[in-house]
Structures are given as structure tokens and as C-alpha cells.
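Hey all, quick one. A colleague (J.T.) asked me to put the flavin-adenine dinucleotide job into the tracker so the inputs and the C-alpha cells live in one place instead of scattered across chat threads. No bug as far as I know, just bookkeeping. Sequence used:
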Amino acid sequence: MKVTDYLAQAKGETLISFEVLPPLKGHSIEAIFETLDPLMEFKPPFIDVTYHREEYIYKKTANGFYEKTAIRKRPGTVGICAAIMNRYGVDAVPHLICGGFNREDTENALIDLNFLNVNNVLALRGDARKFDGKFIPEPEGNQYAIDLVKQIVDMNNGNYLDPDINQGKPTNFCIGVAGYPEKHFEAPNYEMDLEVLKAKIDAGADYIVTQMFFDNKHYFDFVKNCRDIGIDVPIIPGIKPLTREYQLNSIPRIFHIDIPTELAREFSKAKTAAARVQIGSEWCLQQSKELKAAGVPSLHYYTMGDAEIIRKIAEEVF
Ligand code: FAD
């Protein structure tokens, strides 16, 4: 079933959903099940699975030089989606990115998903590879998420890349896209970032999932600003608890978001790992309660190694 159908069916009641990352190469899928098994008591209607493209690493060779190699550290998105649907009977939402795919690769990936009865996809551009400096699309690849949305919409209309395919079987993908309550870091300004988001919706995207935020005001303002420019699709807030000492700096650096002063001060003063978890959990719990009280479509938790902490938060909210 489509994410938007679940949201419509809920008739304003807030749902719960989760995002998981494929395990590092060499690890078993059990890591995913260990994350999700305890969260199933909340009956999430859908679970997102992230996609991780290849990264460049430098390996020292026998003669002392460094060799640049591309490796994929977290493959398996499609397989994990199939395993989730099979094990839990819950819909999986694979993330699909532009980076590393030409349009033919994208079409073939969507055909695989369609054959597996995966009818949801989160369409993203992806980030630049570490040593590229800026995002570089593949030759014949999609440059922006909107181009990927358009390709999926084309397939939903039965139009495949090969013009010789007449009356191609239409796919039936529900398309989510990313939104940034604190602006995407590359956008020249907030207004232009919102215009790009509106363009993704006008191109056929069905709903939005937000970047994480630690201050609900960012989300509420974002929703209002979206509504003001005519974006009328569901906007699902993505959140996570702050749990580890290094995240105080790594989250702002990686996700380009702010940690509110009150949370950051309290968190930095904490003396133990347990105290930090307590502070971060309490903050996330209050965020969750306020968002649910405001009637958000779903509380979408980024699990990121914190499934047990999230389970305890969810227990108090749902
Ligand atoms: P876009 O919507 O294409 O926007 C990228 C930038 O280009 C923005 O600054 C935008 O303002 C600008 N822009 C867009 N269209 C145009 C245009 N036509 N003309 C000019 N400028 C334009 N990354 C992964 O690699 N794997 C994942 O699984 C993953 N999951 C994510 C899930 C969520 C909920 C979120 C919020 C992000 C996720 N990301 C993931 C990260 C995402 O790929 C990056 O944030 C990426 O930098 C932007 O992706 P996007 O889809 O928002 O891009």
C-alpha cells in the first residue's frame, strides 16, 4: 500500500514510522531485525531504508603510493526492503538517489522494485562524494531530485526510456521527497529552496519527509511556509534523539542543522553517557509529544543505532 494511503486512512491520527540504514558490508541482516523487532509493537505501516552510494577511499600500495578506490560500504537497500516486507508484512520505502545512477540504471532499479511489489520510493539527489567537492551526476544521469521524480512519474504513466516500448506497463510508485526546515545547505536562500521543493511536488511527488530538527518551531514554520506557497501534500517530520557526545558537533556538520542552546548546554554539562542519553531522550520525547499533539501525519524516527532509546520514547507517546 502507498504511504499516502496509510496517511489518508489514519484520518488525522499521527502514525509512527522508522528509517533504518543497511548494515556495513560484511555484517548480517540480523542487525536490521534486531533494530526493528522491538519496534514492531508500535505497528509502523512503513519503514524507510536508506541508500548509500560508493565512496572513495585511498589505500596505501606496496610501493608507498596511494591508490584511489571506490567502495560501497552499505549495499543491500533493495534486499533489505524485500526482507522487511517478507518478515513483518510492512511496506518498505527504499531511498533512491540520482548519484551513481544513469537514467537507464534508475529505470532498471525501479523495475526491480516494481517486480518486488515495492510501491513506495523516496526520491533524492544524494550528496557529493567526499573528494568530489560538489555533486556530479553520472553521464546521462539525473542531476536533481526533481529529475528523478519526473522519471518515476513517466514510468507511472507507462513511459519507459526506450521509445520503442509502446504501451509499457505503468508502475504505481508513491513518491516521497526530502524537505529542509532549516534549508538545504547548498540552496542560495530559504525561499529558493522552498521553490525547488514546490517544483518537486508540482512534478508529481506525493509527500515530503523532513530533515531532522531539534526545535519544533523550525518544522511548524516550514509547514506554514510550504502551505503559503501552495504545497499541500503531507509533510512528515523526521526526528531522532541526541544520544552521543560526538553528535553535538557531528550532527550540525553532517546535516547542516542547529542544536538549540538549551539542549546543547545541558548535554555538554552531562558527565556520563547515561546522563547524555537521558537528556537527549527527554528532549526527543517532548518534541514527539508536541508534534503529535499538533496532528502531524507520522512521527518518523531515524533509528541510527538508537532503536532501544526510540522504543522507550515511542512507548510514552503512542
Ligand atoms: P534536491 O531536491 O535535488 O536539492 C539539492 C540542492 O539543489 C538544493 O540546494 C536545492 O535547493 C537545489 N536544487 C534542486 N533543484 C534545483 C534546480 N532545478 N535548479 C537549481 N537548484 C536546484 N542521501 C543519501 O545518499 N541516501 C539516503 O538514503 C538519503 N536519505 C535522506 C532522507 C531524508 C529524509 C533527507 C532529508 C535526506 C536524505 N539524504 C540521503 C540526503 C540527501 O541526498 C541530501 O540532502 C542531498 O544533498 C540533497 O538531496 P535532495 O533530494 O534534497 O536534492
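Adding what we noticed when we looked at it: The chain has one domain: 3-240. The pocket of flavin-adenine dinucleotide is lined by residues 50-51, 95, 97, 124-127, 144-146, 178, 184, 186-187, 193, 196, 209, 211, 238 (CB under 6 Å).
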